[in-house]
Design a protein that fits this description.
The protein is of the alpha/beta class. The chain contains 13 helices and eleven strands. The strands form three sheets. It has a seven-stranded mixed β-sheet with strand order 1-2-7-6-5-3-4, with helices on both faces. Strand 6, helix 4 and strand 7 form a beta-alpha-beta unit. The longest helix is centred in the middle third of the chain and has 19 residues. The radius of gyration is 20 Å and the shape is globular.
């Protein structure tokens, strides 16, 4: 008999808070309906981005429509019109695009959204409920969970390195994870964020670590995006950040090894795709690094000089980092994503954070 999962976490920063509720199974719809009742909304606005499974989007819409007039806006049709939110309780359903918006309820339907933007502080909405169906995440294509696991790798490298050995044991290129493992990964990310934003709500100090490598990933995506699988830009952003820190003498080589090990176990790219334009990518990275980069002196320890967590990096160092990743043989994926299934009889290994109150 399948055991349902249950996880409750609260991320508090000043007056703003995110309440994370992870559930599984069809009976959880009833609880979500009760939570919608608590909003006492006169109108609901469901915002989506085209990535949510049809049954999930339909389920949320039906629950809302049973309680108040409901409209749906698809972000693929453009941004929310001015005034669309006025007087409405906003329900964001889908991936990172939808869940990055301020909303009363966020329903992320992939691991990347659930570990990242869905957990971000909800200003100007004072409280956001993040409602995650672990069985929905488990049923998504492997590529989606592989991409989402890169966000978990980021948290472990930059915030909570004590989980490194356990996460290394969990990750595999097949990227098929059961509900309890996915719930543990969500707990890890929620706890890491809660530990930082409680005293850095504006994410201008230590909480900058939550975005480790992201600006570099955006630059990689802008240049090499069509040649990359989902999540590979994020993986390469982490690797470039590690190589920059090593070349500047801020970090030891084993820090870079830890980055590469976790990403390789995840089946993520560990080298740039062949034919990448080094000059163009370097220029994009220079622009992304303009305000400075958060770099790691060691796992879980951002480099700080003169009270600054953002380090200026010149173009020569960034180019050298690009060339080192462009010069590797092969595709950059250590083992074929398609050909390496989850090992037979593989068991979910707890990552941590799901054994306390609120877990079952």
């Amino acid at each position: 008999m399948r055991r349902s999962v249950r996880l409750d976490r609260r991320i508090q920063a000043g007056a703003a808070q995110v309440v994370l509720a992870v559930r599984s199974g069809e009976p959880s719809w009833t609880e979500l309906g009760t939570r919608l009742d608590g909003l006492r909304a006169d109108r609901f606005l469901v915002v989506t981005d085209g990535t949510a499974p049809e049954d999930t989007l339909a389920g949320v819409r039906a629950l809302a429509a049973d309680r108040a007039p409901t409209t749906v806006h698809d972000l693929r049709d453009g941004p929310l019109p001015a005034g669309a939110r006025a007087g409405a309780a906003v329900l964001a359903v889908g991936g990172e695009h939808a869940c990055g918006l301020p909303a009363d309820v966020r329903v992320p339907t992939d691991l990347a959204a659930a570990c990242g933007p869905a957990l971000a502080l909800p200003r100007p909405v004072p409280t956001t409920l993040v409602w995650v169906r672990a069985d929905t995440l488990a049923a998504r294509p492997a590529a989606w969970n592989r991409a989402g696991a890169v966000a978990v790798v980021r948290h472990v490298l930059a915030v909570c390195p004590a989980h490194h050995p356990t996460l290394a044991a969990v990750l595999h290129p097949g990227a098929r994870y059961d509900e309890r493992t996915l719930t543990a990964l969500l707990a890890l990310c929620a706890d890491a964020r809660a530990a930082l934003v409680c005293f850095d709500p504006d994410e201008t100090g230590p909480a900058l670590a939550l975005g480790y490598g992201r600006s570099l990933a955006d630059a990689v995506r802008a240049v090499a995006g069509p040649d990359l699988a989902p999540g590979d830009a994020e993986a390469l952003g982490l690797l470039i950040a590690a190589r920059v820190a090593i070349r500047l003498g801020l970090a030891a080589g084993d820090t870079g090894w830890a980055h590469r090990e976790l990403l390789a176990r995840n089946g993520s790219a560990t080298a740039l795709p062949g034919g990448v334009d080094v000059d163009r990518l370097t220029a994009a990275l220079v622009a992304a690094a303009g305000p400075g980069l958060l770099l790691l002196a060691d796992l879980g320890r951002p480099y700080c000089a003169d009270g600054r967590l953002l380090t200026r990096v010149d173009g020569a160092v960034l180019r050298a980092a690009v060339e080192s990743l462009a010069g590797r043989a092969g595709t950059g994926v250590p083992r074929s994503r398609a050909a390496v299934p989850e090992p037979a009889g593989a068991r979910a290994v707890p990552v941590g954070g799901t054994g306390g109150p609120g877990a079952a």
